[in-house]
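Page 37, continued from 36.
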């Protein structure tokens, strides 16, 4: 896709990559349910925070979900360090197209509008035009996808993009088989990943 065929197209996930979903869940849970057992960030494993809380005690799954399904949750997320700067830099890179590719919650009442408002607040109106909202990222055509979810499945068995795992508390323990790549943070050399893809 990149190179002679046109610009390099980059998809960037939102929660856990641009916005600190995990930190906000923990803070919200601690504030709302101070007496309940909780999963500290250092103990997070597996993409679904709900399932990990269910493993502590069945009823905690609904309690932790009530935190991230509540009004104001997504709008109030802190940006991941370096994310906003990296996105602005990508936006202005030659021969590069960058889009935010994010999946809404199944219980989407607040989530969708707040994701749009968050992007406008932190990245500006030009990025609102670059939001791709989908439950299935495999059908979106691109060269690269930066995402904290370790396994992304959908209708397309062989997506056009290379999935670069963005390191987050729930996936840092995972060993990736070659040739899969990981971005440790936005301070890591994300530009080198773009350039290596451009040369392919």
């Amino acid at each position: 896709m990149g190179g002679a065929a046109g610009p390099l197209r980059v998809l960037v996930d939102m929660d856990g990559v641009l916005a600190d979903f995990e930190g906000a869940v923990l803070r919200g849970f601690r504030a709302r349910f101070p007496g309940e057992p909780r999963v500290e960030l250092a103990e997070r494993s597996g993409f679904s925070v709900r399932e990990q809380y269910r493993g502590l005690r069945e009823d905690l799954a609904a309690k932790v979900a009530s935190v991230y399904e509540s009004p104001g949750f997504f709008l109030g997320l802190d940006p991941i360090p370096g994310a906003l700067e990296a996105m602005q830099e990508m936006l202005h890179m030659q021969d590069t197209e960058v889009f935010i590719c994010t999946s809404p919650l199944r219980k989407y009442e607040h989530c969708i509008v707040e994701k749009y408002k968050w992007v406008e607040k932190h990245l500006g109106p030009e990025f609102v035009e670059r939001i791709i909202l989908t439950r299935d990222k495999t059908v979106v055509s691109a060269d690269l996808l930066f995402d904290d979810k370790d396994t992304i499945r959908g209708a397309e068995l062989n997506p056009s993009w290379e999935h670069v795992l963005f390191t987050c508390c729930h996936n840092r323990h995972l060993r990736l088989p070659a040739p899969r790549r990981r971005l440790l943070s936005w301070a890591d050399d994300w530009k080198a990943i773009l350039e290596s893809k451009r040369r392919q």
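The chain has a mean pLDDT of 96. Flag for discussion at group meeting. The longest helix spans residues 111-123.
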